[in-house]
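Recall the central idea of this unit: under ordinary conditions, the amino acid sequence of a chain determines the structure it adopts. In this exercise we apply that idea directly, starting from the sequence alone.
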Amino acid sequence: MRKFNTWIWHIKPKYWRKRTGVVSSLFAIISLCLFVSCGDGSDNVKRDLSEAKTIAYSGDYDGAQKVLIELRQRIDDATPTEEKESFENLQGQIYYKLNAKDKAKESWRRALEYAKVMRDTSLILQNTFNLGLCETDYAKGVEIYKYAVRVSENREPLMYPQALEKLAQVYIQGEEYEKAGDCLDMAYKVSVASNYDVALQQIAFTKCELWQAQDSLDLALAGFKSIPADSCSLDGKLIRANSIYSILYQRGDYIQAIEYLDSVHQFSDSIKSIDGIGRIEKIENEYNQKYVAQQNRYRILLISVIAVAVVVMTAFFFILKNMRLKRKQLDLMNQIAELNVKIEQIKCGDEEESESASNGNATATHEQIIPLLMEKFRLSKEIFLTSQEYATLKKLNLIRDLGADDKIEIKAVGDAIIGRFSDCCLNLRQSYPAMTNDDCLLCAIVYCGCGKEVQSSIMAASDEALRRRKSRIKQKLPENLFMFFFR
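Accordingly, the structure predicted from this sequence is:
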């Protein structure tokens, strides 16, 4: 999007008339707006930053965002680097609190660059930690926190345990548990040796996540319960409650597990309710309206310019959105093609060794194919989720008494599922010959999220017949593959 914005603002209008009065008026209005927005001067930047921090720390993120929107208009090349860093750092924190992580990532990246220019190690590490919170790519996450570990070890020892703990979190996500354990052990030793108690709770929390990932459920459960929920952030509370629920459920302690399920839903709803993007856009729109209102003599023309820009940008937005969707679908299809190659390679290797293969070798072959089958189903589902039939399915799932028109739509949904998952079902049947076509189809429609009424209509079977078929499928498939479809 940044490249798009850069391109759109550098278009050179070739056919404008040099003496057109409207164009001259437009440039005059823009110049006046820029003059007014910069009229307060750079002397007040530090004061407004302090005001925005005070408002943000009180929890009024919308109020702080309003101050920062106005302040951004006055920040330019002449603004001191430390004030630019402070602005971007605070802006990133507010975006993150409002659950607008993509925006937070951009702000913190700029803040890190300013901190490097200032050569302030503490700010470099702080912005590096923040940047890592928004990074979803595993390799980049490891790179970010390894950099933080190197910098803190050599130049800021007090932040060294934090850097190690955050690196351990990334290793856990990447299932490199031994490396994660080494990082946590080192972080704990350094914290204890330097009497640095601040990092100990977070280290303990991450240690519990590592135990859970390694299936040391008793240790993880005891550890999570020992951490007070009130001392955790909203994300931390969700992770803690969800982890305890998951462990209790795996152990078969359903009564205690259900007590934590309400907390999981509560924290999930609280996070989802933070409509950060919507609130940010609302605040920005309010500011724009206020700003336009202050220019009474040029209000009509300025609103017209904004309206045209919104229409053009909206048109480009939908075009780009459609292109992005097509690129995503193409990428998913390429990934599926790569999986097909891997599956065929495994099958060919199994056929070549079929004469000497034992039952153990056959089991090993199935264990190799299972994750590939799961991934192929998952990628196919991602493609299905972008289709119009999925939108229809979500509507049909809410209907209890299906009419004739609904059944026509269900047939279209069923055809789309069959078309999308036919190749996946073929692989499933080839890997597990006991599975019938209807067995594979039931797996696919359940995995896609079809409700019971939709399932019955597509399969032309009663609920009881579907339950019996599901029971037979459970006998034909490994447990992990069965749970993948019917979780």
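Residues 318-348+365-486 form one domain.
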